[in-house]
Amino acid sequence: MQILVSGLFSASESYGKSDAVFEIILMLLVAFILGYLLRYFLSKSSSTTANCDDWAHKCELLQNQLNGKQNEINKLQAALEDCQKSHDKLQFAATSKPKKPAKKDDLKIVEGIGPKIEQLLFEAEIYTWDDLSKTEVSMLQAILDKAGPNYKVHNPESWPFQAKLALENKWDELKKWQDEHKAGRF
Predict the structure, then answer these.
(1) How many CB atoms lie within 10 A of CB 123?
(2) How far apart are the C-alpha atoms of 2 and 5, rounded to whole Å?
């Protein structure tokens, strides 16, 4: 290299202009090749890093989606368990031996309960106003749902309340409440 460099600046006659031009072209070519190789290797390493970042981002997005789906699955699982518990209660009520009631109250006094619904309640072992007042609305709705689509129009929301008034012999209050509320609805 020293010969090349010293040759550029030497004033000797053995070293001509064509040799100097060739040397300069050769040095420029070497610099170009080295620059190209350096650029190639640097871009290769940065694209590898970029690819890793892209993959990491994709993996993070997929993990977030998976977590969201897992939360949905957990909620659905809890809802399914609640549904199965309600079904088991109804199944038990339907398959257990009916008890012989000491007495049966006239459940038709409750606004919204007619002879057919009264019979459904008797079959579910709800015989008295006390039984009805202690029965959850969801259980009453399940009894109606099980009976079929003809009973969809009935809303049992107020039945336990009305039964409690009847149980406590608050007939005037029950009558007033029924007059003020259409079809026994709150």
Answers:
(1) 14
(2) 5
